[in-house]
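The data are passed on as follows:
___
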Amino acid sequence: MILFALICGYLPFEDANTSNLYKKILSGDFKIPKFVSEPAKDMIRSILNTNPEQRYRVADIRRHSWYTSDNLPRITGGIFIGLSQIPINKTILEKLMTLGFKKDHVLKCINANKHNHITTSYYLELKRAEQEGLVDETQFEFYDDRRIAQIHQERLAQQPSLSGQALQPEETVVHKASIDTTKHNESTQLKAIEETASGGFSMTQPLKT
């Protein structure tokens, strides 16, 4: 069960109905994703075999080709969060930038091991690339705080100024809201001055006789 979850990313037997769940367990009703290698599939099927006579035991597992293989993919190796730097895939990083993520902010979140939509997007894209065989060790780099700060300054230098270039859609909305708020405040202040000058009556409306 644990091996299946580690390899596939979910449990082999799942059902909202407890009775149906037991039936699936007893009948060995599970599906292995296509991205799992054939040796790993054979190992899982052998361990979850419903026939106790044919089901793999510990000794059988240790003799299996998948268990004894030394060709298992190793992309980043082991790391200790908080002590080791996390190697970051340049290709996935560039892809996130095309989706609107800011490079320096993505790097900060990954290095800090944050759990948010940014790191989720990064690791999902990385997993997809691994499954498609598009990842190799040459794509990974380390980004320290000094390098991230430099990337941040470069991004700020490339941003258009409010006076020299057109505003982005989000900036336009904020800028327009600011102008509207300013106009409203000025109108309120003017109305208060008029009412004070006219003894409590607004000069913008006709007096009732």
Summary: The beta strands are 88-89, 140-141. Residues 28 and 117 are 36 Å apart (CA to CA). Residues 88-158 form one domain.
